[in-house]
Amino acid sequence: MAIFHYHDGELFAENVAVAAIAAAHGTPAYVYSRAALEQHWRAFDTAFAAQPHLVCYAVKANSNLAVLNVLARLGSGFDIVSAGELARVLAAGGEAERTVFSGVGKTAEEIAYALTANIRCFNVESIAELERINHVAGEMNKVAPVSIRVNPDVDAGTHPYISTGLKENKFGIDINLAPAVYQQAAAMPNLDVVGVDCHIGSQLTSVTPFVDALQRVLGLIDTLEQQGISIHHLDIGGGLGIHYKDETPPTPAAYAAAMQSLLQGRSLEILLEPGRAIAGNAGLLVTQVEYIKATDERRFAIVDAAMNDLLRPSLYQSWMAIDPVQPRQSEALNYDIVGPVCETGDFLGKDRSLAIAQGDLLAIRSAGAYGFTMSSNYNSRPRAPEIMVDGDSVTLVRARETIESLFANEQILQD
Ligand SMILES: Cc1ncc(COP(=O)(O)O)c(C=O)c1O
Ligand SMILES: N[C@@H](CCCC[NH3+])C(=O)O
């Protein structure tokens, strides 16, 4: 049985009617499925079972403590990009020793915090960052485990805003320059070179760019071996796409098979950093139609969720499925699904054929990744609650923000 499915004419999350969740917690609201999170994480873990590996879930996709805790209980590692994400992992019961620290802009404070926590590895993105980590580790009398994120100059074939492995992107170190940078790193007294890292982009729907990148990275590892630098782990990043509309991304098993065909005979531990493929289709955003408004040009369904709740359609023109929670039999008409925010770009879907009326609930699908984590308070809108379904049980895992909390840290001048 699909985890989000229709039964008796209404949408369910596991064994719970989405309309019942909306009635209890209001809208807009994020709804996650524990079973889906577990199933998606296990799909990666099982696919790579043939070799030493660690699935390091990319926290940025969905960093709710309950989500991180569900994955930590399975033995997940984590990929973080800030001190805040590390603090979340630790608060959720995850282990720093199973956590890698990515990102181009780590501050000295973040590096010190990660070293104190005993992080598994820093994925380093520049020479200046290597120098900073070496310096901070030295001051703390520590040796920092590092791997260098290399940029293999591979076209991931995805949206330009989420492609990261091209020379023109800010990420990583040019793979052609990497041997010299590894020599520099190896000579720094407070660094321990343990790995190579590569992440080429997000929402990839073909294995070809992954395979191309892996071939280049394995060539680098061979070069490094010849230069006396031995590599313990290879972090192949995240990026595997999901089904939003008509994509047919490779399954984790197909992805693993393609990668493993190149890895045979090598004694490398493989680290993975999937985010979207674990959390994306484990969540939806439920929203209510506030008004129907027709002009000469278009028909709008104005809903109570907006770009501040779910930015992907506005930011990337992403298409996300929008389904009625309790479908009607009436005639379907074309609607633009828009929010109350004062921006023309505030839309969740355009030209959608739907049979709906004022007051109806809609589910925006595939919203478990890069949904809540990219939300904001724009237009002074409190952030939506997050709710985890587990079989028959429903837990509010983050309460709806209150209006007072929006300005609790502000103050007015005294005179
Ligand atoms: C370094 C790094 N690792 C992992 C991820 C997770 O990517 P995805 O959610 O596409 O699997 C990202 C985001 O693209 C990233 O920048
Ligand atoms: N936020 C993006 C993905 C960015 C990946 C982060 N490295 C999305 O929603 O598709």
Automatic annotation (TrEMBL):
Signal peptide: none annotated. GO terms for biological process: lysine biosynthetic process via diaminopimelate. Coiled coil: none annotated. Keywords: Amino-acid biosynthesis, Decarboxylase, Lyase, Lysine biosynthesis, Pyridoxal phosphate. Its EC number is 4.1.1.20. The active site is at C342 (proton donor). It comes from the Bacteria. Gene3D superfamilies: Alanine racemase, Lyase, Ornithine Decarboxylase, Chain A, domain 1. Residues 35-279 form the Orn/DAP/Arg decarboxylase 2 N-terminal domain. Substrate binds at R276, R312, Y316, E343, Y370. Its cofactor is pyridoxal 5'-phosphate. The keyword Amino-acid biosynthesis applies. It catalyses: meso-2,6-diaminopimelate + H(+) = L-lysine + CO2. Pathway: Amino-acid biosynthesis; L-lysine biosynthesis via DAP pathway; L-lysine from DL-2,6-diaminopimelate: step 1/1. Pyridoxal 5'-phosphate binds at G239, E273, P274, G275, R276, Y370. The keyword RNA-binding does not apply. Pfam families: Orn_Arg_deC_N, Orn_DAP_Arg_deC. The modification N6-(pyridoxal phosphate)lysine is found at K60. GO terms for molecular function: diaminopimelate decarboxylase activity; pyridoxal phosphate binding. Homodimer. Belongs to the Orn/Lys/Arg decarboxylase class-II family. LysA subfamily. Specifically catalyzes the decarboxylation of meso-diaminopimelate (meso-DAP) to L-lysine. This is Diaminopimelate decarboxylase. It comes from Methylophaga frappieri (strain ATCC BAA-2434 / DSM 25690 / JAM7).
